[in-house]
Structures are given as structure tokens and as C-alpha cells.
Specification:
The protein has 478 residues and is an alpha+beta fold. The chain contains 13 helices and 18 strands. The strands form four sheets. It has a seven-stranded antiparallel beta sheet with strand order 15-12-14-13-17-18-16. Strands 5-6-10-8-9 form a five-stranded antiparallel beta sheet, with helices on one face. A four-stranded mixed beta sheet has the order 1-2-4-3. It binds flavin-adenine dinucleotide. Flavin-adenine dinucleotide is lined by residues 42-43, 78-86, 89-90, 100, 119, 140-142, 145-146, 148-150, 152-157, 201-202, 206-207, 320, 423, 465.
């Protein structure tokens, strides 16, 4: 990052920004502000963009004037929730960042088991608010992630098999459109917009709040990790193939291979970690299920002790420090046969850097019971999702780390089922505007999303995202 603020905001922009400043209750941080460098940063330290200004919204009323300024001046605008987007879509060069992170109120209705969440909330805000009621909304596994970006892409985590993706638990959203209107989206109000919000990314407007269905969860649900040193990987992977075929929906597991961070004092070799979470009260049943895996493949170390849901939800935060340089690739897949296991074990052993690793999310259950066309999110039939990631600190390592992840991704591609998850996409610098979303959606879904985009954002004002281009009128089908 360049620590010297760029003071070259031209006079036209200066006067427009001054006008905007008078119309909002939040803060406007321009290039001359000493807070500018901090304000422009996102989670991925490799993303080094210099917006004209960062608008830290003080209320939802700040959204429409900020969108209007961007639209009338043709300035690119980036909408930011938690800033965790790996591709860096929460910031932009020479445009406006609309930062909603100050709006993070969470209202729980325990009687209805619903939760209303403002768009700047993180998973930590949400989990802290639902925990006192022994309720949880299915979200991701790192607590600093923003609810907004996570939800708009899908939301995979420890409750996926029990209760589905985050989007499968979305009941309603409030959206400010690029025209400045506030609209509601649900199954009964603007249902097509509601469909698009459940996996179509931030293309259709700025969401101000999400309403989710929450689920009962014991205060200390049964969770834990089995850790396997390299000499046990073959047995662990083969046993996981069989074990994961035969567990109930309440049990979600994630199999990871990575070099643990130094602070964990687990050595410097890559480790296989099998994490599991049981979303029910019958702990004896869960113990019996994980014991089956334990007997089939005895772990080198195990860490199975009761912790609160919030503690579990932040238990791997230290693996992913803010400011890391990051690049990811992903694919859905069904086979965990000898051929695939050999690739995973070899690639797992090759990754000798702290921070490079991969997760295999076990799918099925509630995830698979949602019809493929019910949401834009792809690959409901897939058995697993593979997310290959790299986090590092030194720019000199960029080329080697990205090359490893790309090569691993390319090797898995023909073995996968072709699914790509929007939220696990890294930045593809050489891609054309529409390329990143092409592998994500079927042709029919992309057409439906493009038609929705034309209805809500025909000028593609919201394009600093995994962008869906507005359909041309000539694309209409009879
Ligand atoms: P931001 O960068 O703030 O926003 C991302 C994009 O979302 C924006 O560019 C914009 O297009 C859109 N957006 C944000 N807010 C709004 C809004 N209010 N209205 C309209 N559009 C908006 N994903 C999972 O599914 N499961 C995981 O377990 C998981 N773990 C992760 C762990 C780490 C360390 C990281 C870096 C990412 C993880 N992700 C996970 C991926 C994550 O879901 C995406 O990176 C997501 O985009 C982050 O959302 P955000 O709000 O933090 O991001």
C-alpha cells in the first residue's frame, strides 16, 4: 500500500464531494484525509485501489445520494459490507466506495425465529446477537466476513447440511435501487428481485437489511476437529469418502489441508483437519457418528470439547488475518475416489507455505433439497465443494502462490462437476468484464439475471462486483 495520500482530487470532484458531504449523515473521506489509506483498504492486501472518496454511511438514507452522484457523474461505485471479497470488489480506482460497515444493527425476534440484520454487519455481529436465544442463522466460518457479500453470493458454512445456505434462509431484503427507490424483496414482494438476490451478487441494488430464518441450536453444540499428520492422510481421505456418505443432515463437516499458523504450535508440516458441527441436541448420537470416523481413521490429535457457537464460529479466524494477500479457486465435485484423493493428497503435501490450503465442504442434506432453479446459486446436486486458497504477506511471493493455486485448480477442473461459487472467486486480472460470472451460472440463469439487471440497473451503475451485464432488448425471448 502507498502510505502517501494522493492529493490529486480534481476541482470538479472536490465540489461534487462537498455537495454530497452536506447531504449525508455519515463521513466522506477523500484523498486529502489522513484516514484515507485506512479507509480504502479491504481484507485482501493485494488489492490496492485508490477511490476518489470513501463514503461511510451513517444511515440507509446516505445510500441514494451517493448512488446518484456516481450515476450522474459516470463514476464507478463499489459497495462494501465486510470488505472480505477475495476479488477486492469492495473498493475501486477513481470512483466512490459506499462503505456500509457502520450499519451493523441486528434485531432478533425469538418468538418468530427471525433475525433482521443491517447490511454492514459481520458474521460476528449476527452470531453474538442470536447466541443469547440459542438460535443461529447458517453463515460462513470466519467471523469477520460481511453478511452482505456472503448472502448475495450464497453462504456456505457449518450449518449447510442441516439448514441450507445463508440464501436458503433469507426471508426478505430491503433494497435501495440505483433510481433511489427503496423496495422490499421477498417471495410475495418483487419475487424476481428476491430470486436474483439469492446468489446473483450485488448487481441489482444496494441492500440495506436482510431478514433471515434462524434455527435452534444448543448453547454448546457438539463440534470438534480430528487432526491427521501426513502418514495418515490416505487412510483419513479414504475413510472420509465412506463416512461422509452415511451421516445424517444434522452433521456438517469440512475437510481441510493446510500448514497451521505458527501460533497454534502444531508444527510446520501441512495437516489434514476434519472439522464437524452437529446441529441438534442429541449429543450421544453425534458422538457415535464421529466415533465411526475415529475408528476407521484414528486421528493423530483430536480436539473435541464443548464450546459456545460464537467461539466455534471464530475458531479459525487466526488462519485468515486481515491484510493478507489472497487468491482463490474453487469447484464443486462428486468423486472422492482413488484418483481424486491422490491429487488432493499430493497437492496438500506440496503446499509448504503457511496460509495456503484447501477446504472440502460436505454438501447434501438441506442444501440439496433446494431446487436448482429456485435460486441463482449453482450445483445443488454436487456432493462437495472444493475451495483452494492462498494467504501470504510478501508481494514477492505473489507469482508462485497464484501459480500453485491455478495449477491445482486446473488439475481438479476435469475431475469436478463444473460448479463455481461466486464468493470463492479470486481476482482474474486478465478477464473480460463478463467472464468471471460465466462459469458460475447456467445459460438460463445468466439470461434471467441479465434480464433482472436490465430492469433494476440498465446503465450497469453497479458494475464493481462479479458483474452481470444488463440484457439487451434484442435478447428477449418470446
Ligand atoms: P465486501 O467486499 O464488502 O463486498 C463484496 C461484494 O458484495 C461487493 O463488491 C458488492 O458487490 C456486494 N455487496 C456488499 N454489500 C452489499 C450491499 N449492501 N448491497 C449490494 N451489494 C453488496 N464464503 C462462504 O460462503 N463461506 C465461508 O465460510 C467463507 N469464508 C471466508 C473467509 C475469508 C477469510 C474470506 C476472505 C472470505 C470468505 N468467504 C466465505 C467468502 C465471502 O463470502 C465473500 O468474500 C463475500 O464477498 C464477503 O462479503 P463482504 O460483505 O465481507 O465483502
Amino acid at each position: 500500500m502507498n502510505s502517501q495520500p494522493d492529493r490529486t482530487t480534481d476541482s470538479t470532484h472536490r465540489s461534487l464531494l462537498s455537495q454530497l458531504r452536506t447531504r449525508i449523515s455519515g463521513e466522506l473521506i477523500d484523498r486529502s484525509d489522513p484516514r484515507y489509506d485506512d479507509a480504502r483498504r479491504v481484507w485482501n492486501g493485494m488489492i490496492d485501489r485508490r477511490p476518489i472518496a470513501v463514503v461511510r454511511a451513517g444511515s440507509a438514507a446516505d445510500i441514494a445520494p451517493t448512488l446518484a452522484l456516481a450515476a450522474t457523474q459516470g463514476l464507478p461505485i463499489a459497495v462494501r459490507g465486510g470488505g472480505h471479497n477475495v476479488a477486492g470488489n469492495g473498493t475501486v480506482d477513481d470512483g466512490i466506495v459506499l462503505d456500509l460497515s457502520g450499519l451493523h444493527d441486528v434485531q432478533v425476534d425469538p418468538a418468530r425465529r427471525t433475525v433482521q440484520v443491517q447490511a454492514g454487519a459481520t458474521l460476528a455481529h449476527l452470531d453474538a446477537a442470536t447466541a443469547p436465544y440459542n438460535l443461529a442463522v447458517p453463515v460462513g466460518v470466519v467471523s469477520g466476513t460481511g453478511i452482505a457479500g456472503l448472502t448475495l453470493g450464497g453462504g456456505v458454512g457449518w450449518l449447510t447440511r442441516a439448514h441450507g445456505l445463508t440464501v436458503d434462509n433469507l426471508i426478505a431484503a430491503e433494497v435501495v435501487t440505483v433510481a433511489g427507490d427503496t423496495v422490499q424483496a421477498s417471495e410475495t414482494e418483487n419475487p424476481e428481485l428476491f430470486w436474483g438476490l439469492r446468489g446473483g451478487g450485488g448487481n441489482f441494488g444496494v441492500v440495506t437489511s436482510f431478514t433471515f430464518r434462524a434455527h435452534p441450536l444448543p448453547e454448546r453444540p457438539f463440534t470438534g476437529n480430528f487432526l491427521y499428520a501426513r502418514d495418515r492422510w490416505a487412510q483419513a481421505l479414504a475413510s472420509y469418502e465412506a463416512w461422509s456418505r452415511d451421516v445424517p443432515d444434522e452433521l456438517t463437516s469440512i475437510l481441510t489441508i493446510l500448514v497451521p499458523p505458527a501460533g497454534m504450535q502444531l508444527g510446520t508440516d501441512p495437516l489434514l483437519m476434519l472439522g464437524f458441527a452437529w446441529a441438534a441436541t442429541d449429543t450421544a448420537r453425534a458422538e457415535e457418528l464421529v466415533d465411526r470416523m475415529r475408528r476407521a481413521a484414528p486421528p493423530t490429535i483430536e480436539a473435541v470439547e464443548p464450546v459456545s457457537w460464537s467461539a466455534w464460529q471464530s475458531s479459525v479466524d487466526a488462519f485468515f488475518p486481515k491484510g493478507s494477500r489472497g487468491y482463490w479457486k474453487n469447484t464443486s465435485f462428486d468423486r472422492l475416489d482413488d484418483e481424486v484423493r491422490a491429487v488432493l493428497a499430493r497437492r496438500g503435501a506440496e503446499q509448504s507455505w503457511v496460509g495456503t490450503g484447501f477446504d472440502i465442504h460436505h454438501l447434501g442434506g438441506a442444501y440439496a433439497r433446494v431446487a436448482e432453479d429456485a435460486t441463482p446459486f449453482p450445483s445443488r446436486a454436487a456432493r462437495f465443494w472444493l475451495n483452494i486458497y492462498g494467504f501470504w504477506a510478501d508481494p514477492a511471493e505473489d507469482a508462485a502462490r497464484m501459480a500453485f493455486i491455478r495449477a491445482f485448480g486446473a488439475e481438479m477442473e476435469p475431475l469436478g462437476t463444473g460448479g463455481t461459487y461466486l464468493n470463492f472467486l479470486g481476482e482474474e486480472r486478465d478477464a473480460d468484464a463478463a467472464a468471471p460470472v460465466r462459469p458460475v451460472y447456467s445459460e438460463a440463469k445468466l439470461h434471467r439475471l441479465a434480464t433482472l439487471k436490465r430492469a433494476y440497473d440498465p446503465q450497469n451503475i453497479l458494475r464493481r462486483n462479479h458483474n452481470v451485464l444488463p440484457a439487451a432488448a434484442s435478447d428477449d425471448t418470446e
